[in-house]
Predict the structure.
Amino acid sequence: MDVYQGIFVLISLASFCNCNDDSHQSVVIETPSGPVRGYHEALPDDLYVHRFIKIPYAHPPLGDLRFKKPKPVGRWTDEQGIQEKNGPACMQEDYGLNPEFKPEYTEDCLYLNIYVPGDVSRDKRLSVMLFIHGGGFVMGSAGEYNGQRLAAQGDVIVVIINYRLGLFGFLNLLDPIANGNYALWDQMAAIRWVHENIEAFGGNPDSVTIFGESAGGMSVHHQTLIPANIGMFQRAISMSGVVNKQIIMNDNDLKKVFNMISDKTDCKQENKAELLMCLQKLTPTEILGIVNIYEFMTPDNYTEEMLIGPSIDGELINGQLYETMHDRSSPEATFFRSLDFMSGTTNAEGSVLFYSLMPDFQETFNFSVEDGIPRRALCEAIIPGLIQGLYGNRPDLSQRLCEFYTSDKGNDDQSNQALAFYGDLTMVAPSTSALIAHSRKNTAHRTYNYILSAPSPVPFEPPPPAWFSGAGHADDLYLLFDMPILPTKNRLEERHTTLSSRIIRYFTNFAKTGDPNSEELPVTWPPYDVQTREYLDFDFELSVNKDFHVDATRIFQPQLRELFQNEKQEL
């Protein structure tokens, strides 16, 4: 199963906020796109925000606009923005795991939500933070994240966007008529709309930070490597996700999608224009039914299938960006290095693994995830399967990794070592690579690295096994957002709210100035440097450390020589 797909189906997070509903108080503002109505919402500690829900940033991608770049929304005359708490979600499978959160799933979904701290005034010139949600590029929505706490405590405008998912967002027919990456184009359209309209909300279009988590973090990093975005934002934060080897669909992936289209629909035309017209006439449900990643799983192996995601289109993406970002002469790297950049992960990102080991796989290797992940499953299937997909047939590398992640400290530690392999491969090593590409000999713009070590008090659904330790994938989200999925009553302690306040302050300081530090914060966060390699550890007691999982990164990305040498030299 793909590392990123299904993540949000399996995560239950919740809200810090027990807010009073003052939504009967409203304000209408005039934007360059037209009038928008927002609603007052009270928060604890005498704070309040104005929330603007369901603002269109592009035309609905319906009919002949399906599988096309987003069309600019133009100007409207009727008031936009409605009183409901959440706007619609883009088309995706409804797994029925969040009964308290049931958005409308529709193709007419290119909307964004805005949270403005305090009163709305053009004179404020507030910094802006635009969030791109995660969900493996197949699920999630802006409505899952309430940005009022982040906006109010950090005194920034928070924008949260929808973008097309699944095949709706990424179908590539290997032809200019439909060459994929519509989701990335959606994100760019939303960013441009914010740049052109945010002054009406009291925002500063010259102080915009894009940030995202998981697939959203990967999207953010992609956007920093697209020179067409020059001037649209000044800073970026990639949380638990950056551009890496897994994320770009290759020709074999695209051919498998073609075969699925032929097998599951009546659209079998060889002419690409006719094939596109046929696909545009299918119902949304028929489009959703085309790709099923579970069809590629076998009970005796563990493989990655990236059948939905960004692809090389010759326009937004011209090559392998995880390599291009290290070429300082490339336009992509030049733009990336002209921004302030922050990247981080949790200390147990591999938590995704124990959700993706299917029952047949567990039966084949005679184990239960609840009891632990044995060395045999790790060394005979998980490691070789993933390495095959990323590096080709490399039994030498698989053997070295097996030895590296073998523990003699008992079953629980061995199980967590299996998770460490998964997290190091998919997120930690790629994040380190991005940090090096950005910081190396870059004196004009700052780079920061963090690790989250404090686990979330809100359990995953289903809960993680008893042997699991650390902060798992997405354990950082509750610290920034209120999420209307499960209640957190009686689960939060003072240490959680303190950590949340500190992270919000660090992140919003960075969004305002490019420097996360300020006098009221207890620990000074040093910039990331290829020689010192320091990071801030977001635990309940903050600390500055260095070289997180550095030996693992050395195995996965030996080309990053500067990471392991004190002297400066060219890569």
Observations:
- Residues 1-21, 566-571 have pLDDT under 50 and may be disordered.
- Residues 8-247+315-346 form a domain with the Rossmann fold fold (CATH 3.40.50.1820).
